[in-house]
């Protein structure tokens, strides 16, 4: 008896349709017997299926949950994209209205040049790669008859699946070299847009780290000021709270005895904006930094996120037989990066990596050569 992971859901749908279609014509007792027959069939198919294992049972039980999550992610796709745009725009607004004027008036020309050049390069990299990651199709296998070698047939699309192709339940189609479906892009990450996705994550993590590190003292000052004046505009209030705990003030200096300048509404808004910016960028820097690092490890190994799981399984399976599994798409750490970034000559490190570039990745995503890049094939 053949089993597919969605069969439980499918059978339940059939059951509902069958019962509904005969409503009014079939007696309740007969309908109950049919119901029981279907439920029994489902249970037997799970129990006496030669392909059943813990994964199949897990998939079957959680199929309705996956189905619901897939649909919710699809419906809220644009909401996540809008969140990225709004949050990034809010940080930019704070940078351009508060931080850059502060930098221009207080820093030396060398530091001003550094902040302006690095900040704007980082911004261009974020915007370019995010736009391209959203707008570039990840790549789909052809739905018409062809001679492309395939490794299996998709049970949902009923088309041949080339190597590294997987079905995305949210996009509801097969994706070439699928890595994962990214709700923040409202798009799948696959063969043709994986570089844009990774470069966006890297640029965004770098930008957040840059804001977090360079804005640390501003954050501490802002927090300190808000703590001091949180009970209204008063003078001579002891400095308490986190500012004191982490040793902002020298020991013994806990009271302001001299009148401080008036704390205006604008000051409060500026300080709150700086605190918001620092907390948001620090949080994203840690979370996205971790994600980017993990993807960098996968790229070094020549694996996608999905292949990481399948390769681990295969490694364990072969280890039990005393064999060693070798990933056929791992061309060596350095070559994996060159293939991923599309670097074919030295100048590409500048034009294709450090600057925004719209070049397509090598290969068509349908056929894969095993170890095509020898160590000395690309003189980089
Ligand atoms: Zn499919
Ligand atoms: Zn998808």
TrEMBL record:
Residues 152-310 form the Palmitoyltransferase DHHC domain. The chain crosses the membrane at residues 75-99, 111-131, 195-214, 235-253, 273-299. Its EC number is 2.3.1.225. Keywords: Acyltransferase, Membrane, Signal, Transferase, Transmembrane, Transmembrane helix. It is a multi-pass membrane protein. Residues 1-21 form the signal peptide. Its main location: membrane. One of its GO terms (molecular function) is protein-cysteine S-palmitoyltransferase activity. GO terms for cellular component: membrane. It comes from the Eukaryota. The keyword Signal applies. PROSITE patterns: DHHC. It is found in: Membrane. It catalyses: L-cysteinyl-[protein] + hexadecanoyl-CoA = S-hexadecanoyl-L-cysteinyl-[protein] + CoA. PANTHER family: PALMITOYLTRANSFERASE ZDHHC16. Belongs to the DHHC palmitoyltransferase family. The DHHC domain is required for palmitoyltransferase activity. This is Palmitoyltransferase. It comes from Muraenolepis orangiensis (Patagonian moray cod). The lineage of its organism: Eukaryota, Metazoa, Chordata, Craniata, Vertebrata.
């Amino acid at each position: 008896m053949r089993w597919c992971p969605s069969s439980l859901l499918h059978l339940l749908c059939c059951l509902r349709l069958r019962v509904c279609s005969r409503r009014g014509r079939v007696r309740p007792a007969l309908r109950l017997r049919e119901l029981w027959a279907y439920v029994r069939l489902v249970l037997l198919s799970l129990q006496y299926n030669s392909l059943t294992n813990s994964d199949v049972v897990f998939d079957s039980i959680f199929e309705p949950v996956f189905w619901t999550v897939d649909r919710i992610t699809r419906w809220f796709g644009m909401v996540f994209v809008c969140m990225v745009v709004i949050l990034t725009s809010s940080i930019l607004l704070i940078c351009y209205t508060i931080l850059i004027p502060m930098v221009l008036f207080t820093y030396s020309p060398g530091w001003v040049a550094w902040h302006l050049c690095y900040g704007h390069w980082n911004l261009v990299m974020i915007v370019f790669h995010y736009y391209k990651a959203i707008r570039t199709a990840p790549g789909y296998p052809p739905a018409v008859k062809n001679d492309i070698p395939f490794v299996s047939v998709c049970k949902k699309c009923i088309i041949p699946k080339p190597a590294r192709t997987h079905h995305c339940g949210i996009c509801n189609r097969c994706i070439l070299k699928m890595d994962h479906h990214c709700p923040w892009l409202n798009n799948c990450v696959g063969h043709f847009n994986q570089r844009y996705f990774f470069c966006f994550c890297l640029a965004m993590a770098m930008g957040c780290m840059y804001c977090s590190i360079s804005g640390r003292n501003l954050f501490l000052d802002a927090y300190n000021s808000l703590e001091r004046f949180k009970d209204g505009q008063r003078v001579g209030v002891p400095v308490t709270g986190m500012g004191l705990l982490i040793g902002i003030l020298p020991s013994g200096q806990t009271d302001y005895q001299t009148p401080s300048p008036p704390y205006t509404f604008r000051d409060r808004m500026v300080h709150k904006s700086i605190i918001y910016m620092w907390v948001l960028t620090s949080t994203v820097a840690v979370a996205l930094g971790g994600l980017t690092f993990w993807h960098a490890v996968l790229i070094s190994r020549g694996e996608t996120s999905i292949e990481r799981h399948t390769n681990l399984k295969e490694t364990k399976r072969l280890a039990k037989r005393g064999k060693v599994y070798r990933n056929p798409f791992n061309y060596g750490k350095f070559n994996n990066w060159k293939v991923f970034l599309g670097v074919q000559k030295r100048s590409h490190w500048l034009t294709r990596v450090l600057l925004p570039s719209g070049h397509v990745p090598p290969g068509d995503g349908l056929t894969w050569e095993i170890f095509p890049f020898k160590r000395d094939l690309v003189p980089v």
